[in-house]
Amino acid sequence: MRALRCLLLIGVGACASASPQTTSKPAPRDSAQADVARGGTSVPNADPFPSTYVPFASRTTVIRNVNLLTAAGPLIRNGAILMQNGKIVAVGATVDAPSDALVIDGGGKYVTPGIIDDHSHLGVYAAPGGNALSDGNEATNPTTPQVWAEHSVWPQDPQFPRNLAGGVTTLQVLPGSANLIGGRSVVLKVVPGRTVQAMKFPGAKYGLKMACGENPKRVYGSRGGPSTRMGNVAGYRAAWIRAVEYRRKWDKWNADHKGDPPTRDLANETLAEVLRGNILVHNHCYRADEMAQMIDIAHEFGYKIRSFHHGVEAYKIADLLKKEDIGASIWADWGDFKMEALDAVKANMALVNNAGARVIVHSDDPSGSQRLNQEAAKAMEAGAEIGLPVSEDQAIKWLTINPAWALGLDDKIGSLEAGKNADVILWTGDPFSVYSKPEKVWIDGALLYDRLDPSEQWRTDFELGFVPFNRN
Amino acid sequence: MKSYIFRISVAAGLCLVALVTHDANAQTIAITGGKVYPVSGPVIENGTVVITNGKISAVGANVAVPAGAQRIDATGKIVTPGFVDAATQLGVQEVSAVNNTRDMSARGKDNIAAAFTVWEGLNPNSVLLAPARKEGVTSFVVIPTGGLISGQAALVDVVPGTTTDMVIKAPVAMVAEIGGAQEAGLGSRGEVIVKLREILEDTRYFQAHRDAFDRAQTRDFSTSRLDLEAMIPVVEGRLPLLVSVDRESDIDAAMRLAKEFNIKLIVGGGAEAWMMADKLAAARIPVLTGAENNIPDGFEKLGQRQENAGLLRKAGVSVALIGNAGGGDEEAFNVRNIKQEAGNAVAYGMTWDDALRAVTLGPAEIFGAADRVGSLQAGREGNVVIWSGDPFEFTTRAEHVFVRGREYNDKTRQDMLVERYRNLPGTHNTPTP
């Protein structure tokens, strides 16, 4: 009953992404601050809004008698997993349960890594919506690398706890797709926090949202441009030309500290960090021909595109994506809502997967994000129908380790392996069944959602009084 | 976005029941051995469904296969009626961002477009019809959107030909959107009800004083003659008023109005309908809603939850499942996903049988077409789907889809694209049929 609203959301809200740089250790705060004192911050790992995330209280937990889809190897039937001090300690047919461990009998259910959505607008387009909460597109200029999505995120967005209940433990929040260059993304843990800093994934790299095609030219066509696709490309190139020059000046000053530092510019600071490889590019782009052009632009200026988002025509250039090692963050079955989405096919994921490129199931939607497992399942069936069956062992990667890679976090999250963060879902059944739901969700070993226990179900401040969750 | 002035080409209020044309050479088809869900009756293990001349002629466990019938072995399969999507813009919207492919909204006068018959803009050549049918949707209700009174909805089958060929029944409902005063061009919720009351009273008065009207001896009316004509079946209780409404208080207001004017009401959307499930059941008001949305994504939908459909059904409300999650699931492109909606309804408390009913016989009953579609019983249209398994599961495929007794397995545009790019760099020639 709501077709019009969808159009508006997709038209302006959708699409963006790029996520910050991550190092396994916290950024070198002292040296960065020393640079600030000298008048410069245009250096790798400058981190003016540092994460204050602290893992929630956890206890040593063993889940036994479960089927584990690890995203790191074949299904382990009737196996077990041990979580301790926020990390996965052991995964296998059996694990040794420490004496203090809480032992959960999984009763033959399934365990997977937490789901990672690399394309979210939670917090920047918060519920209940409306202009007051529309903070995703700085649609005042087609090139706004100076804006950071985290400064728009409302931690009390009631969509966060629903995402968690859908098994999403990490998400990349992106600016929208109105702009050629939309700004920095932020990678969040899906946890309650008084501040966005308390949700930020420690050490995660920033991303940069770029957007191709219809959205920028539609938004700016009557406002000074760009009004064409060729105008879009001229806009990207002009921005990167400025960024190359800026980076050169700052790299020189950072090396010799001679004289006054160059003038700081927030826009170019972000782009220079992309050129240095410290910020990952997440490029909204639907059409095959445009993706190929964006790859050429990346080559021209010496940066990498980490993942194309939406890419409804990724299947037409799956070989190119494989060759360039670029991810395809895509939907199972969205399409048709605009001309550049016209050639969407349900077999997109299966075809890209078959070409050996990296499939990532993304949402760009607060509702779809809660059921990314179902999106993957639809795409699996579309593959089977054309003779390209996809195993559950492979499809779980689309939901976990592949998006972890897209965020530069595949050394920390995205699979059930010893040493990884204990972001874990216990499902009520096979996660690729329409009837299955996350029963329990752990982040860094802490139980943050329990479908069976209302006291373990996070409610945002906004919901109190407004949402009748106690009424039946 | 409402940039059209519509030509009204069907007399308002006229109930048009199409004469369905059947292929004179249609074969007799016998589907044997399957687990048959007639929906109108209990499940039949190892059942037979016979379709003759486009209509279902027999359903049962001990049905003889007519001589010369084309036999389809459905052993191990599930056989159901074709699915009915109860609210979509399929066929009246091709590409939502391309204005001249959007024909679901009338400008009307003062946001009143009761005379607007949305099916006049239906495009039987839409490339989105075949993908819906391929996944088991054989009928749908095309509904107008926007304004205060959006216009009239129609129930159609997904068959090739003209709109005339497709229509099962038109109109099946008058559609109004009363959840937001702004969209109706009014100042507040209460004023929306005032405006509706004015239209309903004017309709009654107009009906009783037609001659005076024609002599220009009546007072001014709130809307045009054609709109008032179109509203007559509504005030007579013959044509249901489908109100798109979410907030509990708005549903309640609609119910008061319906009672006052003795109108048959259908609630569409109904995010907070679960809060008053007992009252809706007592008033026998059906609800069209989904099972995937739990986001308080508007102050009128703070109580939205995935259990809505299940709770309503449990209370005895007649429910049809529609896409409600936004973002794309309810777009014409994804009418095919009502089976996913049904699966989620089950995951959130609806019984499996009720979910099947909510995508077949439920909508057919709600829109007064249960004698035509929605169940497997003799005399109904031959709209039948043979599924490889549980129709709500992702691993299941609609292996055979019959509409009015003819099997469709034509390639969709999406199939042709896949074929073209299956092996890169792909091909560029005309696809084989």
Mind explaining what this structure looks like?
The complex is a heterodimer of chains A (472) and B (433). Chain A is of the alpha/beta class and 472 residues long. Chain A has one domain (3-47, 116-414): TIM Barrel, CATH 3.20.20.140. Helix content of chain A is 28%, strand content 20%. Chain A is built from 13 helices and 18 strands. In chain A, strands 2, 3, 4, 5, 6, 16, 17 and 18 form an 8-stranded mixed sheet that branches. In chain A, helix 5 (229-256) crosses helix 6 (266-275), helix 9 packs across helix 10 (372-385) and helix 10 packs across helix 11. The longest helix of chain A has 28 residues, at 229-256. The radius of gyration of chain A is 22 Å and the shape is globular. The relative contact order of chain A is 0.17. Residues 2-40 of chain A have low confidence and may be disordered. With 433 residues, chain B is α/β, with parallel strands linked by helices. Chain B has a domain at 84-367: Metal-dependent hydrolases (TIM Barrel, Alpha-Beta Barrel), CATH 3.20.20. Chain B is built from 12 helices and 16 strands. Chain B has helices spanning 129-134, 163-166, 189-208, 210-214, 225-235, 248-261, 277-282, 308-314, 338-347, 352-357, 361-366, 413-421; strands at 29-36, 44-52, 55-60, 70-73, 78-81, 83-88, 137-142, 149-157, 167-177, 241-245, 265-269, 287-289, 319-321, 384-387, 398-403, 406-407. In chain B, the strands form 2 sheets. In chain B, strands 1, 2, 3, 4, 5, 14, 15 and 16 form an 8-stranded mixed sheet that branches. An 8-stranded mixed sheet of chain B has the order 6-7-8-9-10-11-12-13. In chain B, helix 3 crosses helix 5 (225-235) and helix 3 runs parallel beside helix 6 (248-261). The longest helix of chain B is centred in the middle third of the chain and has 20 residues, at 189-208. Chain B is globular. In chain B, 58% of the residues are buried.
